[in-house]
Amino acid sequence: MTTVSTADPHIFANRESEARSYCRTFDVRFTKAKGSYLHTDEGDKYIDFLAGCSSLNYGHNDDDMKAALIDHITADGIAHALDMHTAVKAEFLQTFQDVILKPRGLDYQLMFTGPTGANAVEAAMKLARKVTGRHNVIAFTNGFHGVTMGALAATGNSYHREGGALPLQGVTRLPYDNYIDGVNSADVLEKMLGDASSGVDAPAAIMLETVQGEGGLNAASPEFVKRVGELAKKHGALFIIDDIQAGCGRTGTFFSFEEMGVTPDIVTMAKSISGFGLPMALTLIKSEHDVFGPAEHNGTFRGNTHAFVTATVALKKFWSDDTFQNEIKEKSELLTRRLTEFAGYFPGHKMKGRGMFQGVDVGSGETAAAVCKYCFEHGLVIETSGPNDEVVKVLAPLTTPVEVLEQGFATMLDAARIVSAAPETIAAE
Amino acid sequence: MTTVSTADPHIFANRESEARSYCRTFDVRFTKAKGSYLHTDEGDKYIDFLAGCSSLNYGHNDDDMKAALIDHITADGIAHALDMHTAVKAEFLQTFQDVILKPRGLDYQLMFTGPTGANAVEAAMKLARKVTGRHNVIAFTNGFHGVTMGALAATGNSYHREGGALPLQGVTRLPYDNYIDGVNSADVLEKMLGDASSGVDAPAAIMLETVQGEGGLNAASPEFVKRVGELAKKHGALFIIDDIQAGCGRTGTFFSFEEMGVTPDIVTMAKSISGFGLPMALTLIKSEHDVFGPAEHNGTFRGNTHAFVTATVALKKFWSDDTFQNEIKEKSELLTRRLTEFAGYFPGHKMKGRGMFQGVDVGSGETAAAVCKYCFEHGLVIETSGPNDEVVKVLAPLTTPVEVLEQGFATMLDAARIVSAAPETIAAE
Amino acid sequence: MTTVSTADPHIFANRESEARSYCRTFDVRFTKAKGSYLHTDEGDKYIDFLAGCSSLNYGHNDDDMKAALIDHITADGIAHALDMHTAVKAEFLQTFQDVILKPRGLDYQLMFTGPTGANAVEAAMKLARKVTGRHNVIAFTNGFHGVTMGALAATGNSYHREGGALPLQGVTRLPYDNYIDGVNSADVLEKMLGDASSGVDAPAAIMLETVQGEGGLNAASPEFVKRVGELAKKHGALFIIDDIQAGCGRTGTFFSFEEMGVTPDIVTMAKSISGFGLPMALTLIKSEHDVFGPAEHNGTFRGNTHAFVTATVALKKFWSDDTFQNEIKEKSELLTRRLTEFAGYFPGHKMKGRGMFQGVDVGSGETAAAVCKYCFEHGLVIETSGPNDEVVKVLAPLTTPVEVLEQGFATMLDAARIVSAAPETIAAE
Amino acid sequence: MTTVSTADPHIFANRESEARSYCRTFDVRFTKAKGSYLHTDEGDKYIDFLAGCSSLNYGHNDDDMKAALIDHITADGIAHALDMHTAVKAEFLQTFQDVILKPRGLDYQLMFTGPTGANAVEAAMKLARKVTGRHNVIAFTNGFHGVTMGALAATGNSYHREGGALPLQGVTRLPYDNYIDGVNSADVLEKMLGDASSGVDAPAAIMLETVQGEGGLNAASPEFVKRVGELAKKHGALFIIDDIQAGCGRTGTFFSFEEMGVTPDIVTMAKSISGFGLPMALTLIKSEHDVFGPAEHNGTFRGNTHAFVTATVALKKFWSDDTFQNEIKEKSELLTRRLTEFAGYFPGHKMKGRGMFQGVDVGSGETAAAVCKYCFEHGLVIETSGPNDEVVKVLAPLTTPVEVLEQGFATMLDAARIVSAAPETIAAE
């Protein structure tokens, strides 16, 4: 395999765009990875509590997916097929139907968009507009849906929004669940939709994440999600759940909304859907809304064949019965307990998220950064989120063994102790 | 590996969105592919003159790339790393610098965007707006740059434009080279840019493809491209060449603009950049314009590690010396000769494109479809492009052996003979 | 003078666009008007509780303004001067400075925009964007600011918004004071502005009416207006008060915000500013924001000379001392008393507005229409407003003598009695 | 009449916004005006070759209009009536029908928009979008249609376009007749409309001025106008002629397009429609497109009653027979002769415009400004237009007696002689 011997040690600084990001925080060079561990070219080993921002819910290089992928490549299995029929796509469709849709009583058509979450969101927003003949999409404070211009309009983060230097359009912003103390956000939505003079144009769609990953692990209550879904229906709008980060088991069930009594009109998926970290995205569409013409929304890499191979294994292996789901539940409870302990070091902290998608608002971005820095120096990759990066978030692979989780938590607790005891070191960050 | 035995024969019709497209024309099920051939699950074999719309310039499952990729996976080489430093990314950067940039005297920073061409275009447009503080991007008639909302604004095709049901913004449309008989399109551009009252806002960028693939294989003259570049510079705009389809050797050189005497400020690449058909995209940026902040334009799958592995092999194998380039040149001449013969059957035809990116405007979409249908029935995958799908285009892998090319051409000539002799059959299409 | 003898009785139906509106409700032909009365060509006489939607705060054909205008015309005083210097403009500027600005300690530059309120708003929004380099203007639910595309984006009414068939842009909509029971709207604004990830782009301006005339006579509390002003300042946005309908004494003081402890950066005026009902509009700008270049925002009829003549008289006559203001105060109290009586007939009613800008939400548009219909049949012109036209509003000239006011109120009470007693007649509307 | 005695001599500089414009060039104070003359408060007298930018086609204070207006005011004729029926509106509608529409075989509905040209254009654009369900309006290089955001999108001038600091939308810009040497602009339009992949969205409307006043007195050929009209029809778009500046006789006939063999779907009028310089605007709509709902496009000052009085007189007095039209024709020929003489002083000059709407491109804005400055110093008000203000334009009242015209021309010729002889003085401007 290729080695780094020939590469200039300064090649990243010299040749990679300033847009590069995570590598600045984790300034080592990774070569291989397995399960819950990342390995560097210097032989160092890190526990991974980031998991490709939830793209590696099943850990790195799962042996079954790996074997299937090697078999496929070895047999000259087709690698790129545009959106032609392939045996592996058939297998994936069948598996998704049998393992995911049927047991949950769901009936969606699968649209393979370009293999990025943003692309799945763009397709969803376009489709909702086409179906309804309306232009307005309601999105929520702190939402993150991608940075291409259509999706970016729905994303709340000002740093990303300003990146485009063009006013974003087609989206009305309303407060997410529990956004403002003492304000019932669903009431705001209901009032504005019900008032012909509110200035909120009749919506094509209302789109939300049930847990806002980038927005700071804000978890919506089932009541809120349900009411939003009902209001969407009442007002002729499609209800879109962006399950790109919260889906694929991250909150405890395959879809993050399974236990909320809602059936979205459109669901977007990406990140862990391939199982192996390969680029793949999916837009699930209720049959009655499946009105795109052939290639009306297209893209060269829609339908990544290698990803179909691993995705099929992932679905069969982890979702054919309840075992995995039950494991996540137990680990989630463990996570809650340990984060509660961790949080105790930070006065005024807030517990955030649910399932294996939890974190702690430690009060400031500086404190959170100091925690993550300590962790990384002690063998743990972990990151922040939230409007001010003030939330230390745990995104461990769902397959992480309990003992490895505990090892990571121990490092976090050390970090909490050190950082909370020496606030002056934080200012130096 | 996975077989289709378990999949319902109607699974595509039942579960895949109506947005599916190529599979409608090529209604078979592909399983494997090698070099210039596609194989179905029924044992049929097709010559591939489509090459994943130019994503497979080096053919299917190239043995060297395949070996490197299997090695990487076998060794648990990292599969997903967000934009962290990895050994394989270092190797790709180094190779791109040494093999591509240096010999051509070019000095670009590499930005790994989300792995779709559209995402590379979105990044390019956003960056140009950020750099200049202007909003307007000038794009050309019949251009195709993707279907996410930012890129879609620059795309000409009305079928795609209407897909979004939201007026597209931030783009001024001007005629491409030779768009209107007797009109010098560069004169139109020059006049409009030089007139403070033209209504064309000062541009952030002027963006073009040197050959418009989807637009009908319209090849711009070097004079036009050069003048556009000069006008961009004169008026403070960035010059963007979208080389997603025309790049990676398709026109005869690595970049499609190499022999035109221009150095764009930004170049977008995707399709064949991974060499193997894996999703990957790249935005090349002159250092002085490399002003995105960390993760200002981001995405989970930016920097597809598997693609870096195969891309590095592809660059080293095909671009370390002139051999490959010379082969393309010879094959291009052969292609021109055979297409001239083919075109002879269609009165009023027009020869289109250049290099291995050529085709024939046969007069109507119906005729072109009839040709392609005949070809497919006789073992050749070939497609159309153009505003009315009136251009039969040849996008064979650049590595296709001459004898296989000739076999494909022979089928095309048969098709031309049959179709041109029986125009009534076309109406039946 | 021109008479109607030559006009076809069906000329309106035959030749005037379907966009015509008030004439449908008040289907008579007016010829002359004096003080608080409108006269028809059939010799009928109506008390005017509409006053040109607050464009006739000083009543019809005020004798002093009339004399000045006739003098001006008789002397061949200039009628149209673009924005050249004229003696009458000097006089108006001087008077506005001496009578309005100085006594209130205000220091504004006067911009004479095209003579419509919408034009004054367009100028204000453009200017705020130019001053701040930002694009976003925050406007409120139920706001009405005009129907040209820039102003329309800030207007809440969906009927008007849909009239343009183009998505409106550049405006974020937030709840007005007391919009939702139990929600402090200023808290919503504060939270969204203070959160870099809220999705509300940094605002160029926050714009509001202190009383929303078209929106249903919603009166903001001084606390709300003040907090909005402070938040605007804190976040680098200009604070715009649209005083087009609420200004010129309607709420009791010349500016509607005088007693609220705020000094807006920009104030828009129109409607009664000419005093005589002549088209005129004004945008008041703090000196430090007076950055439009010459004619950057222009228009042929900016600076209506005839209107300057009457406006100067109006300012001198009504605002040189407190007499008029005190009269309005007394009449306002009378109005409140009589509307309270009126409202008593409608269970669940709400009292709306303040000053001589009050009305009653009678529960439904049907009821309100029935009231107005009865009134018109009994010699009183009165109209509705609100999202569902559910508010019966009184917009009598501020100069209306008490006995005429009482006469109008008496008719309103009759209407209330009749309509509330026979709800079945309402359904027939 | 009001006098200036009380006004501070610096009141304009101190209190009027920097947006003021013409007053900078013509820095005197006008008091009265009659026919073709403007008079200042210092007793100076100027010949008016600007005529309120064509708002005073019948000269200042025409005695018949003046008398009718004084009669109306004296009789307490209604001054402001929203869009209620009034006797004077009936009279105007009847007169417009009898004098203008019938003799020309035209059948339009009249919509009284807010009394500015921009407002009439906003209404036209909104209506075309509503009628067609499309968003795109095609406008032309160097067009001027107003500066409110909807109209501004159709205006070409960058100084005005940038005034809004918000990207303008909904308009595609194409070259006007004879815009580029050797390019047939109608061919460009035809090609782009006929190509589904051109990137020009199916238009709601195509809008043009037959002579572009602000754009530099560019006169379209009848062939161009006719072809544009035909292309609009063919492609399902409404054909809008903006006759605000070129209409009301300026080019020789009441409508500027009368002799071109076209019948626009919508015509916008303003400027001289009131006859007296009073604010008034009009949108003429073919019955089948008269689909605005009541007040869907509204405005307080729509239907300026005083303007109806004078407009009715103007139509009866000047357009009841051919006399006036014939006079304009003769004066136009005189104007052409004199301008040819004038132009002779400027090498490389271009004759511009037609009818009483002519001027000379003297090569540079500096030269044109020097000419106008000399003229003003010698008793003649005259202005420039064009992208670089390089056209000296004559906009004399159509009623100007020949001897006054000759006097003005004489001054212009003097200016030409002086300025062309002393080019160094121009640099000093």
UniProtKB/TrEMBL annotation, chains A, B, C, D:
One function term, GO molecular function aspect: pyridoxal phosphate binding
Pathway info: Amine and polyamine biosynthesis; ectoine biosynthesis; L-ectoine from L-aspartate 4-semialdehyde: step 1/3
UniProt cross-references to NCBIfam families, sorted A to Z: dat (TIGR00709), ectoine_ectB (TIGR02407), PRK09264.1 (NF006733)
EC class name: transferase
Listed EC numbers: 2.6.1.76
Stored Pfam families: Aminotran_3
Domain of life: Bacteria
Transmembrane annotation, as ranges: none
UniProt entry tagged with the keyword Transferase: yes
Family the entry assigns: Belongs to the class-III pyridoxal-phosphate-dependent aminotransferase family.
Organism per entry: Pacificitalea manganoxidans
Keyword list, A-Z: Aminotransferase, Pyridoxal phosphate, Transferase
Cofactor(s) listed in the protein's UniProt record: pyridoxal 5'-phosphate
GO BP field: ectoine biosynthetic process
InterPro entries with a match to the protein in the record: Aminotrans_3, Aminotrans_3_PPA_site, Dat, Ectoine_EctB, PyrdxlP-dep_Trfase, PyrdxlP-dep_Trfase_major, PyrdxlP-dep_Trfase_small
Name the record gives this protein: Diaminobutyrate--2-oxoglutarate transaminase
Keyword Glycoprotein attached: no
